[in-house]
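Appendix B. One record, verbatim.
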Amino acid sequence: MSPTTYVIEWTESTFPPVLGEEGSGFASALALEGNFIAVGAPRDNRTGAVYTSVFSNGDWLLPRKLAGQRPGDGFGSAVDLVEGRLIVGAPLEGPAVNPMLEVGTAYFYAFNPSMGEWEQFGPTLRSDEDIASLGGEFGAAVAIGLSDLPRVVVGAPRSNVNVDSLENGRVYTFEATETDWESLEETPMFGKGPYDKFGSAVDMAKDGL
């Protein structure tokens, strides 16, 4: 029996486009679920931003903006959106003890329908923040999965194993508790060789696998 062939033809939508500011890097990252969209703009107003909007009655409703914490953090370089939950990567943000160092972070938000606002859940997600993770760009790739409690996966593709094995890359997985995050493994997953940049892209199924 010969295989069945399907032909799909894409046609341009007549819906109005969502536009960002010039030079903001708008749409460097985006996620879409149903009629909800999240768009990253990592150079927006220097701090970076994520715009979220709902498509209704033939138009995009006024976007809601989440702004980064500090200039140059790259907030909005990676985003994912699942069932009213949003994760945003800021791969150039520094650690709390020394913001001048670049390690990277990720922020997790839940949408509060009664307030119509995004609320951050738990503390900011961070890597090991050891010497080998400096410049690792934790948050360059992010994804959400849903199990009994939310789970997330975060890539840090420029993390090192040690001074002799550079940019192997790391991937971290976390699960939410009531107020915090716990790592799902004792140590992150590492790339096998130097410059593999393991973790440049990640995804997670909705059941958290």
